[in-house]
Design goal:
By secondary structure, the chain is mainly beta. It contains one helix and nine strands. It has one domain.
């Protein structure tokens, strides 16, 4: 059994744009999350992982906060993508392995609740001077 396309889109709208599902689910009205945090990974964090699983550690990497609104995320065709390119800090030292995956979760740092992950295509080969970028074509599909 699978979810309908309508429910898949509604779930993504609820999680990424804080849009209620009529008569079924609403955004937390007492202290709703206003942002989600995008992380970069050197391998798939997997379904059992958290935001630190295979997370890159180049200098001065940090997760990027993206608004939990339609101005932060685009939901269409059962998938989400960033509304605008997401640029991470320029690598200044210790580039580490290539970036192969990105994650979306609730933590600005630490383990964080990993909601979704997806592949970065093409992979980002890290070196001093590289600015990792997730483009608006980076998508995660609900199916």
């Amino acid at each position: 059994m699978s979810k309908s396309n309508a429910l898949e889109n509604d779930i993504l709208d609820l999680l990424f744009n804080a849009t209620a599902i009529a008569d079924l689910a609403e955004n937390d009205t007492s202290s709703p999350a206003t942002s989600l945090y995008v992380s970069l990974h050197t391998a798939d964090p997997g379904e059992a992982g958290d935001q630190t699983t295979n997370e890159t550690a180049y200098t001065p990497y940090a997760r990027i906060s993206v608004a939990r609104t339609s101005g932060g995320w685009v939901v269409t065709g059962n998938s989400i993508s960033p509304f605008a390119n997401i640029d991470f800090a320029e690598c200044t030292a210790s580039p580490g392995a290539a970036i192969t995956h990105f994650g979306v979760g609730t933590g600005a740092s630490g383990a964080g609740y990993l909601m979704y992950s997806g592949t970065v295509t093409p992979n980002i080969t890290m070196a001093v001077g590289v600015i990792p970028r997730l483009k608006t074509t980076s998508t995660i599909t609900e199916d």
